Amino acid sequence: MSDQGNSVTRGEPTDHQVMKLVGSGDVDAFRHIVQRYEKAAWRFAWRYVRDDEAARDLVQEAFLRIFRSAGSYVPDKPFSSWFYRVLVNVCLDAGRKQRLGVSVELEDEPVDPGSEAQEWERRRAHALLARAVGELPERYRVAVLLRHYEGMSLEEVAAVLQSSPKAVERVLAKARERLSSMVRGEG
Fold first, then answer.
1. What's the total number of domains in the chain?
2. Phi then psi for 13, rounded to 5 degrees?
3. Does 124 lie in the same domain as 34?
4. Spatial distance between the Cα atoms of 13 and 22, rounded to a whole number of angstroms
5. What tens digit of pLDDT does each residue of 50-87 get?
6. Is the pTM of this model over 0.90?
7. How far apart are CA 73 and CA 68, in angstroms?
8. Are residues 7 and 86 in the same domain?
9. Is the dihedral of CA 70, 76, 80, 82 positive or negative?
10. Residues 105-163: pLDDT tens digits?
């Protein structure tokens, strides 16, 4: 995932420029950050908790924290890394306060009768994997969500997790092992 907004496009300010304005009290400038990141934030939060309302609450809390700490934002790394670090912390805090359960159900959507069995099997496999990801230890779950669902590079995940790319590789390898055994019913 590239740091959207850190390069000037069509005259729009970069994330760093916007955060400097927000840090000096420009509330209207914060709308740029919200517009740029709200969809990605909601997607990540929803995948973390698998609940619409809880995801909205987490995203709102993350944006609130970002707004409150805008004055202390230092643009030494891509803004997206800092943003996701805040969002991940909000999700982890919520998870610690109340152990978040993951419920995944197969949806009843109309399916082409010719491929009904294949579609059902695909949904079942997706639901099993989603449930397994939700049951991973927090560090593994966050790494998997950032890398495989948000499409971040190892370096970007490492920046969010405040780790090294090599350490992220190890976490992801352990997560894959766990997921594999969970899906096979061994864990």
1. 2
2. -70, 150
3. no
4. 12
5. 889 999 999 999 999 999 999 888 888 889 999 999 99
6. no
7. 10
8. yes
9. negative
10. 434 444 444 567 677 777 777 777 778 888 889 899 999 999 988 899 999 999 999 99
